[in-house]
Write a structure and sequence with these properties.
Blueprint (H helix, E strand, L loop, with lengths): L10 E4 L10 H4 L2 H4 L3 H22 L5 H15 L5 H11 L8 H10 L3 E6 L3 H11 L7 E4 L10 H11 L6 E5 L2 H10 L2 E5 L15 E3 L5 H5 L2
Parallel strand pairs: 1-2, 1-4, 2-3, 4-5, 5-6
Helix pairs in contact: 3-4
Length: about 230
């Protein structure tokens, strides 16, 4: 198989949650209280979090990602019959300091050394993203950290992806977009970005328009794809 190469890329734009930052690390960090329930909680919390972004977007009832994340956590805790406001507060605090995946810093450093502009484009609020970026120690490697709050609607609305192209002052085809969320990578490709799906969990392909340019298992494979 011919190795994937994407010539002409000037910038790499990353989704944040699940791509750079491990969304399960918040619940994992409360294992002392949750015990074996931490993983089902993490999975339900994430699933409902995404559902609420889509439902709010379709219904025209926007609320910021912090509020959506809190509501999703409340649903998950109640579903697992956990009634503990202090635990809810602790988990939300942990969400502000999610762990970065192991390869993130090295990958960003290699891309930066290769002359690529680097940005985050995320559903997260500016406060949430600043906290995660600072906790991971990657702020100096990023040229922009972009939140959907600038356009008032969540992904996959095209105006979110347009935000990155406008801010970086690049044509969509000059941008490589990375997401571990298949629907996000597909939607970014449909917008016009070159898109690479970081399929960390071996998920099946989506059945929505516009197939990404390729798949990788971790972000570590990205520099060889976009650096000539």
């Amino acid at each position: 198989m011919t190795p994937l190469r994407l010539p002409g890329i000037e910038a790499c734009v990353f989704d944040a949650y699940g791509t750079l930052f491990d969304v399960n690390s918040a619940a994992r960090g409360a294992q002392d209280e949750l015990g074996p329930r931490w993983q089902p909680l993490a999975e339900l919390w994430r699933s409902k979090q995404l559902q609420y972004t889509w439902l709010r977007g379709l219904g025209g009832h926007h609320a910021d990602f912090w509020s959506v994340t809190s509501d999703a956590l409340s649903f998950a805790l109640e579903s697992l019959k956990v009634d503990d406001p202090a635990l809810h507060s602790r988990l939300m605090t942990l969400y502000l300091s999610l762990h970065a995946y192991p390869e993130v810093t090295d990958t960003l450093q290699r891309l930066k050394a290769g002359g690529k502009a680097l940005a985050i484009l995320s559903n997260g609020t500016p406060r949430m993203l600043a906290s995660a970026v600072n906790n991971a120690g990657i702020a100096d490697l990023l040229d922009a950290v972009l939140s959907v709050e600038e356009v008032g609607v969540f992904k996959p609305h095209p105006s979110v992806y347009r935000l990155a192209a406008d801010r970086l002052q690049l044509a969509p085809e000059q941008i490589c977009f990375l997401s571990s969320n298949g629907w996000d990578a597909y939607a970014a490709k449909a917008f016009g970005f070159r898109a690479v799906w970081c399929n960390r969990f071996g998920q099946a392909p989506e059945r929505i328009p516009a197939t990404p340019d390729g798949q990788i298992a971790t972000l570590a494979a990205l520099p060889e794809i976009v650096i000539a």
